[in-house]
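in:
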């Protein structure tokens, strides 16, 4: 049974994907940022045997360390935030926080997962970016630029991993609008 961990599992694409993995040959770790979100997903998946839910705030080092012992096959980096507003006037601290979550903490989590995957010589990292990282949209410039950074990170990691003698895939997903 392959083990797959999703960050940002409360809603959207991650939740829809997790719902499709119920009662399959995957053991799913559905992670969320806080206890309130955990209550919601625990209720959703309380009777599902192959889904385990827990708090993983990717901005916290102690939370990121939780994945060291999980022997993951797949990591899906989906956690992200967005503050709307014009870059002309937006509080720079909101942009910094966007980068902290969407780029820096995601990168740190990937580094933790890759240590185990490199030892095993196999695994998969799926990085959720956005079409906004390619085609920026007004009033979500902080988000769009952070997603552009993830695109570059994924492409660079793919090249670095290819230089090793391992079977690790770095996958990049750039979805557009969805419901």
């Amino acid at each position: 049974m392959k083990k797959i961990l999703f960050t940002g599992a409360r809603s959207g694409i991650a939740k829809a994907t997790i719902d499709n993995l119920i009662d399959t040959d995957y053991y799913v770790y559905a992670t969320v940022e806080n206890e309130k979100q955990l209550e919601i997903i625990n209720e959703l998946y309380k009777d599902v045997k192959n889904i385990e839910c827990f708090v993983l705030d990717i901005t916290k080092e102690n939370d990121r360390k939780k994945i060291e012992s999980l022997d993951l096959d797949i990591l899906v980096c989906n956690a992200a935030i967005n503050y709307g507003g014009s870059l002309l006037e937006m509080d720079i601290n909101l942009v910094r926080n966007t980068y902290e979550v969407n780029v820096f903490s995601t990168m740190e989590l990937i580094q933790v997962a890759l240590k185990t995957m490199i030892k095993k010589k196999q695994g998969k990292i799926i990085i959720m970016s956005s079409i906004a990282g390619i085609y920026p949209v007004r009033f979500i410039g902080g988000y769009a630029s952070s997603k552009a950074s993830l695109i570059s990170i994924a492409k660079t990691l793919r090249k670095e991993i290819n230089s090793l003698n391992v079977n690790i895939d770095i996958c990049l997903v750039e979805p557009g609008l969805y419901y």
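note: Residues 123 and 168 are 5 Å apart (CA to CA).
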